[in-house]
Structure formats: C-alpha cells, structure tokens
C-alpha cells in the first residue's frame, strides 16, 4: 500500500476529484494549506498599499491506494492538476505500513 500526498492549486480540486473517482478510488482526505516553493508568493494591492503575500493557498490531498493503482493515480492527479504554470504543485509517495477500517476491523487492502 502507498500513501499519495498531492499539493495542488485550490481551483483544480474538483478536476482531480473527478479524475480519481473515474478510476474507482473511493476516498481521499482534503486539507486547505498554505505554502510556497519556486512560486515564492506574490505582491498584491489593497486600498492603495502594496504588500507581499509569502504563503499561497493550496490544497493537500491524501489518498491511500493499492500498489497496482499507484501509477494510474499519479497520472490522473498530474493530468487533472496541470496548468503549465509555476505553482501547479507536487506529488509525494510514501509507503503505508498498515490501514485499519475502524467500523469493521478490516485491515490493509480490504480497509481501503
């Protein structure tokens, strides 16, 4: 099992959700986060004053998946979240040692 964490632009969330739902993946966790990378924030004008916005709003997705679905999941997220502009985001994949469905007690792949 793998845990896929993706940081994407907020307006791409629905596109990504539809793409992974089409794969048959049934669940994900979504968190609103702020951060910066190469994009390094931007300046905004508010009531005539210019100020620097260092942390940009992003969305973090966490999806547990079976190993055999990993490549398709990464491709679905990448194609749905891609705009071609700086700040599209990143995908991180980590090993998931164990998963347990609390309601039924199912473990590992059955719990996904």
From TrEMBL:
Gene3D superfamilies: 3.30.70.120. The keyword Chloroplast does not apply. The modification O-UMP-tyrosine is found at residue 51. One of its GO terms (cellular component) is cytosol. Pfam families: P-II (PF00543). Keywords: Nucleotide-binding, Phosphoprotein. GO terms for molecular function: ATP binding; enzyme regulator activity. It comes from the Bacteria. One of its GO terms (biological process) is regulation of nitrogen utilization. SUPFAM superfamilies: GlnB-like. Belongs to the P(II) protein family. This is P-II family nitrogen regulator. It comes from Shewanella gaetbuli. The lineage of its organism: Bacteria, Pseudomonadati, Pseudomonadota, Gammaproteobacteria, Alteromonadales.
């Amino acid at each position: 099992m793998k845990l896929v964490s993706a940081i994407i632009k907020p307006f791409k969330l629905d596109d990504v959700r539809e793409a992974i739902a089409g794969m048959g993946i049934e669940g994900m966790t979504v968190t609103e986060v702020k951060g910066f990378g190469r994009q390094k924030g931007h300046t905004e004008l508010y009531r005539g004053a210019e100020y620097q916005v260092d942390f940009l709003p992003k969305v973090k997705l966490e999806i547990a998946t079976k190993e055999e679905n990993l490549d398709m999941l990464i491709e679905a997220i990448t194609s749905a979240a891609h705009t071609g502009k700086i700040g599209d985001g990143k995908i991180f994949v980590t090993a998931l040692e164990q998963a347990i469905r609390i309601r039924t007690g199912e473990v590992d792949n059955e719990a996904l």
